[in-house]
């Protein structure tokens, strides 16, 4: 199992809407640690979107684990995908992340909240076990992050996520989460899901694998959250 090569510019797969409507929504798909953009295509993510006539273009980033370990994930996502998308005229940007890609989506949204309209996280990795156990002893609304050091990125992320438990969520992107009930991250995913409205949480049978993620993706698309072609 390789970690991939860090490049000066991200490799991507793009899929643009075939209908004549003016497209203002871009979906940015971020894979898991050892997954590739081709995995999204092979598992029907693009075809499911097109079958539903959804008015959105897609960019699937080859954001593998090496970008995270090199601490280049945020820079490459911002410089190679989000800023060029804004320059092309996309008014709405959604981040769609699986596993580590869900974690990366949250890291980006915390740092660049005004650039992200929505997030859909499938079985996201949500940080180190000791912190998750600390939060899980209470509920997110009651948990207090305390003093957060500059080096404690996971605690800083959860301090930001705590905002979803508050009445005033001004400045926070719309957040949807889905996971398999037997997923290894189900416990931490439930901790986050409990502070979200029920209609923003999806579950299915299964563990940390593509079949449950396919079902969650179809569930998300069928809720008609995203715009359709006329």
Description:
By secondary structure, this protein is α/β, with parallel strands linked by helices. The chain has a single domain, classed as 3-Layer(aba) Sandwich (Rossmann fold), CATH 3.40.50.1820. Helix content is 37%, strand content 17%. It has nine helices and seven strands, in the order E-E-H-H-E-H-H-E-H-E-H-H-E-H-E-H. Strands 1-3-2-4-5-6-7 form a seven-stranded mixed sheet, with helices on both faces. Helix 5 links the parallel strand 4 and strand 5 (118-122). The mean pLDDT is 93.
Secondary structure topology:
Elements: E1 12-15, E2 25-30, H1 37-42, H2 45-51, E3 57-61, H3 65-69, H4 73-88, E4 92-98, H5 100-111, E5 118-122, H6 129-136, H7 153-161, E6 174-180, H8 186-193, E7 201-204, H9 210-222
Parallel strand pairs: 2-3, 2-4, 4-5, 5-6, 6-7
Antiparallel strand pairs: 1-3
Give the overall average pLDDT: 93
CATH topology category name: Rossmann fold
N- to C-terminal distance: 44 Å
Strand arrangement within the widest β-sheet reads: 1-3-2-4-5-6-7
Number of domains: 1
What is the fourth-level CATH superfamily?
A: Alpha/Beta hydrolase fold, catalytic domain
The SS-based structural class is: alpha/beta
**Main pleated sheet:** 7 strands, mixed
Gross geometry: globular
Number of extended strands: 7
**String of helices and strands:** EEHHEHHEHEHHEHEH
- How much β-strand is present in the residues? 15-25%
CATH architecture: 3-Layer(aba) Sandwich
Number of helices: 9
Estimated helix fraction: 25-40%
- Please mark out the parts with pLDDT under 50 across 5 or more consecutive residues, or reply none: none
Protein name: Enterochelin esterase-like enzyme
């Amino acid at each position: 199992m390789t970690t991939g090569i860090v490049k000066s510019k991200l490799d991507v797969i793009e899929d643009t809407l075939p209908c004549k409507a003016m497209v203002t929504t871009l979906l940015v798909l971020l894979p898991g640690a050892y997954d590739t953009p081709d995995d999204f295509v092979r598992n029907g993510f693009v075809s499911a979107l097109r079958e539903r006539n959804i008015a959105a273009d897609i960019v699937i980033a080859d954001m593998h684990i090496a970008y995270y370990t090199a601490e280049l994930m945020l820079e490459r996502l911002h410089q190679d995908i989000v800023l060029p998308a804004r320059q092309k005229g996309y008014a709405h940007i959604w981040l769609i992340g699986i596993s580590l890609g869900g974690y990366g989506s949250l890291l980006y949204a915390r740092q660049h909240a005004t650039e992200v309209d929505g997030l859909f996280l499938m079985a996201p990795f949500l940080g180190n076990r000791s912190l998750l156990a600390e939060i899980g002893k209470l509920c997110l609304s009651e948990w207090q992050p305390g003093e957060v050091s500059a080096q404690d990125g996971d605690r800083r992320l959860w301090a930001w996520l705590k905002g979803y438990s508050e009445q005033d969520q001004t400045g926070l992107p719309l957040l949807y989460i889905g996971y398999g009930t037997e997923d290894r991250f189900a416990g931490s995913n439930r901790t986050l899901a409990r502070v979200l409205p029920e209609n923003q949480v999806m579950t299915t049978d299964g563990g940390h694998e593509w079949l449950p993620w396919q079902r969650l993706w179809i569930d998300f698309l069928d809720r008609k959250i995203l715009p359709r072609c006329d």
